[in-house]
Amino acid sequence: MATTERTLAEPYRIKTVEPITMTTREEREKAIREAGYNTFLLPSKLCYIDLLTDSGTSAMSDNQWAHMMMGDEAYAGAKSFDLLKEAVEEVYGFPYVVPTHQGRGAEHLISQILIRPGTHVPGNMYFTTTRFHQEQAGATFHDVIIDEAHDPQFEHPFKGNVDLAKFQKLIDDVGAENIAYINVALTVNLAGGQPVSMENIRAVRKMCDDNGIIMWSDATRLAENAFFIQEREEGYADTSCAEIVKEQLSYFDGLTMSGKKDCLVNIGGFLAMRDEDILVKARELVVVYEGMPSYGGLAGRDLEAMAVGLREATDDAYLAHRVGQVRFLGELLREAGVPIVEPIGGHAVFLDAAEFLPHIPQDQYPAQALAAELFVESGVRSMERGNVSAGRDADGNNRNPALELVRLTIPRRVYTDRHMEIVARAVIDLCAKRDQITGLKFVYEPPSLRFFTSRFEPIA
Ligand SMILES: *Cc1c(COP(=O)(O)O)cnc(C)c1O
C-alpha cells in the first residue's frame, strides 16, 4: 500500500496552537525583493507554511514543557545537567556529555580538540558548519560517501553509506596518522536525509580499529537513521528504534549533537564521548566558548527539555509518523511528476532544481531562484541546498556541486498532513509554469557560509 493512503493519524493531540495567516501575492513579491531573493532573510510572519528547516522548529511535548518549569538555574552543579547526563548514558550509551549552545558549538570544540593543522577529515558528504569548523582548525575535508549519493535519481536503501574504498584510498594516500578522525553523519542532511546502514557502520568501525582512527558521529538525525535501519536492513524489523539507536552509537567513539533536530528542542546541543582525555579537553574549551561544563551556554530548563526530548524521539510510533509524513509529501510530488531526490529521506523532500529548471545554468543559481519563486507562488518557505550553499573553492570558483536542490524541510510534530497537501499543490502548480522562472546573480556575497546572508537580483 502506498503511504499516500495514510492509515494512522498524527500520534498526538494538539493542545496549544499558533495561528498562521496567508498573505497576498503582492505582499510576497515585495517581501522577496526586500529579502534579496534569499529565503533566510524573509520575516517568518510572512511565511504561511515554513519549511525552511527542521532545526529548532519542533513542537515540544507537554512533558517537555513541564520540565521547562523544573530547570535548575544554578550556575554550577545544577540537577538539570544530571538529568541530561543520565539520558545520554541510557539512550545513547555514552558516559560523558558536554552541553553546548547548539550543534556547531560542539563541532567547534571537537574540531579544536582532534585536529592538528595539516591533517585530514573524511566524512560522508560535507555539512556547512561542520566543514567550516574542520577547515578553521586546519584540516582538509574529504568526501567519502558512496557515488550513488550524488545521483538524485539513484534508488539505494542506504544512500548515506561511507564508500569503504574511498576511505581506504585516503588512508593509503595521506597515512592513517594524518587522519584526525572520520566523521559519519546519521542521516546525511545534504544528500537528502539519506541513512547509513548498520552493516556500513560496523565496516567503518573495523577499518578505524585496523588503522587506529577515531570514529566520530554527526548524530543530528540518529533516530531517523534508526527508523530506516528498522524498515530496510535485514534482521532489524523486530528491533525497536531505541535499541537500534543504541547499537548504532556503540560503534562510535563519540558524537556531536544538534539537539535542535532529534532531541526535539528549540535550542541546544552537546558532545558525548567515552574517552576521558577528550572529556577533559572539551571541559577546558567549553568554559571559554560556551559556558560552564554543566550548562554549556544553555539554561537549566533547556537541558531538561533536551533530556526528555531525546527519549521521545526514539519512540517507534513517533518515528513512523515523522518519516511517514515526509514520505507522504514526497509521494504526492512524485505522483505528479515533480523531480525529487530518490529515495525520499528522513527529514525533508528535496526538489531537484537542476531538472526542475533545466534552462537556468548552475552559476545562475537555479535552486535559489526556485526557492524564491515557490515563496512568491504560495507563501511556502524552503531553502536552497546547491551552488550557493556549497560556496567557493580555494581559487574563488563556485564549487558547482552535483546536487542542485531545494529543501522542503518538515518540522517535527508541527504541521498536519493537510499542510503537506497544500505544499504539494503549490509545488505542482509552480512546476506547470516553470519556464517563466529566471536565474539570479549576487548583489552581496559574504566570505563564508554565504547562503545565510547573501543577496541576489533576477537576471533580466
Ligand atoms: C544542523 C546540523 C548541524 C549543526 O547544528 P546546529 O545546531 O544548527 O548548530 C550539523 N550537522 C548537521 C548534519 C546538521 O543538520
UniProtKB/TrEMBL annotation:
User: What region holds the Aromatic amino acid beta-eliminating lyase/threonine aldolase domain?
Assistant: 50-424
**Catalytic activity field:** L-tyrosine + H2O = phenol + pyruvate + NH4(+)
Q: What class of enzyme is it?
A: lyase
Q: Which cofactor does it need?
A: pyridoxal 5'-phosphate
Keywords for the protein's UniProt record, in alphabetical order: Lyase, Pyridoxal phosphate
Tell me its EC number(s), please.
Answer: 4.1.99.2
Coiled-coil stretches are none
Give the protein family: Belongs to the beta-eliminating lyase family.
Subunit record text: Homotetramer.
What's the name of the protein? Tyrosine phenol-lyase
Specify the species: Mobilicoccus caccae
